[in-house]
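Researcher: We plan to redesign the surface later, but first we want a full-length starting point. Tokens attached.
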């Protein structure tokens, strides 16, 4: 039987029981769930901060409009002082009151602006935290796949014994080629001279995974080896 395969060297993890593997998988899944929960909470915090920023921005605009109106009033009062010099003292007091109000509003606007800037920095910090957390979750998913494959590699042949198969050879990460090009890949390839089995390892098995595997083993290069 011809084998058009390229088998990469691989040393399986030894000395682990099924309980060890299962416990490791459950712990990893728990960590993923906690990471997703942290991401959801961070997104909720971002939404809440965004709402506060919008409210503060509205307040800034309202205060700015008041400042502009008060400034216009101050200018009008100043013109009246020039025209009615005999009422200068009273008008001057009015001007001073308006000026004080303008100054007070200006300080409030500056304080609100500082608050907006601080909130913007918090939003940026939270966004960076979410991006980093998302990146870490992606790395965990990739590592989990390789970890799962290595844990199951040492006991793969035994899993098929109860179905009447006694495979004597096992190769990890096997590539199947047609005319020198890779047509399909399998996590493991088992054989005993009479039967051959292409194996795909999944942490969470879905129907589409089964369909894809059936499609994979129907490729000409694999079909010839398993015929």
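Model: Full-length starting sequence:
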């Amino acid at each position: 039987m011809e084998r058009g395969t390229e088998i990469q060297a691989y040393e399986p993890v030894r000395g682990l029981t099924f309980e060890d593997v299962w416990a490791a998988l459950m712990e990893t899944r728990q960590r993923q769930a906690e990471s997703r929960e942290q991401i959801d909470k961070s997104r909720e915090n971002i939404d809440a901060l965004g709402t506060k920023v919008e409210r503060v921005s509205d307040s800034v605009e309202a205060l700015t409009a008041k400042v502009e109106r008060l400034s216009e009033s101050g200018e009008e009062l100043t013109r009246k002082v020039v025209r009615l010099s005999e009422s200068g003292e009273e008008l001057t007091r009015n001007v001073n009151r308006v000026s004080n109000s303008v100054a007070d509003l200006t300080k409030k606007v500056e304080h609100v602006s500082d608050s907006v800037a601080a909130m913007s920095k918090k939003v940026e910090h939270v966004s960076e935290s979410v991006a980093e957390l998302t990146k870490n979750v992606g790395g965990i998913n990739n590592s989990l796949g390789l970890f799962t494959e290595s844990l199951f590699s040492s006991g793969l042949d035994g899993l098929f014994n109860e179905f009447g198969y006694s495979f004597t050879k096992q190769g990890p990460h096997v590539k199947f080629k047609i005319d020198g090009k890779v047509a399909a890949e399998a996590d493991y390839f088992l054989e005993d001279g009479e039967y051959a089995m292409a194996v795909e390892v999944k942490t969470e098995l879905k129907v589409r995974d089964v369909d894809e595997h059936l499609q994979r083993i129907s490729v000409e290069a694999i079909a010839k080896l398993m015929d």
